[in-house]
Amino acid sequence: MSRVFSLRGIGGVLIFLLLWEMAIRSGMFRFEYLPPPSAIAIAFGKLVTTAAVFEEIAHTVCAALIAWAIAAAIGVVFGGALGLSPVLRAYTMTSVEVLRALPPVALIPVALLLFGFSIQTELVVIAVPGIWPVLIGTMGGVMAVPTRLRDVAESMRFGRAEVFCKILIPGAAPSVLVGCRLSMTISLVLAIVVEMIGNPQGLGYAVVREAMALDRETMFAYVFLIGLLGVFFNGILVAASKMLLPGEFGRPNAVMRA
Amino acid sequence: MIRALKVVTGVKGFLPLLTGLCIWQFTGSAGSALFPPPVTWWHAIARLIDVGTFFPALTATLTILAAGLAVASFVGFILGLLIGTLPAFRQWISLLLEYLRAVPSPVVIPIAVLTLGYTGIMKVTMIGFAAFWPVMLNTISGVSQIRGLTFDVARAFRLSWFETLLKIVMPTTIPSLLLGMRIALPQALVVTLVVEMSTGEFGIGSLMVAAQRNFDAAEVFGLLTVMGLFGYCLTMAFALVERRILRRWPTSA
Predict the structure, then answer these.
(1) Above 80 in pLDDT, residue A3?
(2) Which residue of A34, A92, A102 is in closest CB contact with B115?
(3) Residues B74-106: tens digit of each pLDDT
């Protein structure tokens, strides 16, 4: 992170903003609806002093977190079962692969049909795609626990509960956490998408609302705010995985490579 | 023999899905408003084909997807090469990229619509913006895996920066580019659908939204199935092409 916030990095952003501002002011770009950064900054200042925006942030973040918790719980239970039983794997994995390939947004019309414009729609659309990374991570983690460790457990006459607590859980934890992290990244994005198309509440809807009102500065301010929220979420996730898993899984780019 | 075995395990894996669909088919009533049985999905799709909207919509979605993916791969590869080979450029641009990566791409759709209008360029730009990240990140990591010795050889031959890029860096990073494209493909598909849903531009996404607004559950489920199969087949096809290309690719970097 320290390399990202170098002076040159900040300089790069400033140059970008300056070029943008100049391009608009000089009339070089004739995009009617592209405001200069200074106007967006003023709109952003106005936006964060209103109370409504905090309600919208709370709604989006809560929906993302609740759905993520549901997804993680389901993913860990089924992923664990699949990791432990080769028979179950043989009879379900192709189905899982097919369901996993479903584009998450394709669920929005289905959920809208079943639940209408409601928080349930939002939760379902966020939670279902969020299950897969956790499920795959947990399954992989359980399968990767070395058989030698299980042999050791057997020779030490561990009971089932002990094998579970002392061998399986610690062994699978790193990849479960990677799955959870991936799932949380997805959940914030999906929360905003559902709000844009489905449930008219929260930050996603705010962007669409301002766009329809042609209030371009406020719209950009909302997008900027959502970006900040994304940076904040990402920062917390990176910090959490560094704390929980010191070592290779703490790397920031693990998300993209997993 | 092994291939036959694999197919058998694959078919076994379909069992829960098929059983679920069969139960749905035989216990559901055809008139159900919310949970129409699977056979009615097929009827709904057949109806769309008859009306003549299904294949044009599928073609529209596929065309935009392909164009967007091509733009994303091109931009991602170029940016990845620049960032990977020029440390100074990396330092200047890192904070900007780090921020942009945190912005969920669908949020940019209203901006793209306002600035570029309801055009093909808008759609391709959106998909390009959403899907170039994995390509870029994989290209960067591909460049960083090239051994320093290789660059020393380039220097000994007095290759210019551009020649080094063309003759050493680019061929070595092709596998990373392909991996990045494979990761980008589902993301591009998602954004294509979101763009079609939120702008109403013609395609499978807007067909789904239209079906949902008409409370035509069978059509929604049918299109959902089509999209699922579509995504699955695309990923499979791409993996196959990738393996074919990489089969004779020299592995040493």
Answers:
(1) no
(2) A34
(3) 999 999 999 988 888 888 888 888 888 888 888
Closest A-chain CA to B219:
A110
> B16 vs A104: CB contact, 8 Å cut-off?
no
| Contact in structure between B140 and A256 (CB atoms under 8 Å) | no
Helices (H), chain B: 2-13, 15-27, 38-51, 54-85, 87-102, 108-116, 120-144, 148-156, 161-164, 170-199, 204-213, 217-246
For chain A, what are the domain ranges? 1-31, 36-257
d(CA B186, CA B184): 6
State both tokens at B96.
Answer: 């900007």
Task: Dump pLDDT digits (tens) for A115-141.
Answer: 888 888 889 999 999 999 999 999 988
Q: Which residue of B has its CA nearest to A230?
A: B102
- CATH classification of A36-257, choosing from 3.90.1150.10, 1.10.3720.10, 1.25.40.80, 3.30.70.80? 1.10.3720.10
The answer to whether B106 contacts A189, with C-beta atoms less than 8 Å apart, is yes
Nearest-by-Cβ selection for B227 from A16, A96, A103: A103
Domain that holds residue B87: 40-141+182-245
Does residue B126 sit within a domain?
yes
**CA dist B20 → A172, B23, B25, B28, B38 (Å):** 30, 5, 9, 12, 10
pLDDT score of A68: 94
| B94 domain residue, yes or no | yes
- For the stretch A71-74, contacts whose Cβ atoms lie closer than 8 Å and that sit 24 or more positions apart, written own/partner, are A71/A126, A71/A127, A71/A128, A71/A129, A71/A130, A71/A131, A71/A134, A71/A183, A71/A187, A72/A130, A72/A134, A72/A180, A72/A183, A74/A127, A74/A131, A74/A134, A74/A135
* pLDDT at res. A255: 35
Highest mean pLDDT among A50-64, A85-99, B81-95 belongs to: A50-64
> How many Cβ pairs within 8 Å bridge chains A and B?
185
Query: Cβ of A189 and B16 within 8 Å?
Result: no
User: From residue A147, how far is each of A156, A161, A171 by CA, in Å?
Assistant: 14, 17, 11
Tokens found for residue B190: 């998602």
Does some domain include residue B69? yes
> Per residue in B36-52, pLDDT tens?
888 888 888 888 888 88
In a domain, B170, yes or no: no
- Distance from the Cα of A88 to chain B's closest Cα (Å) equals 9
| Residue type present at position A185 | T
Phi, psi of A208 (to 5 degrees): -65, -40
What pLDDT sits at residue A77? 93
Find, among A180, A68, A78, the residue nearest to A124 by Cα.
A68
Question: What is the number of domains present in chain B?
Answer: 1
Q: Measured over all CA atoms, what is the biggest interatomic distance in chain A, rounded to whole angstroms?
A: 79
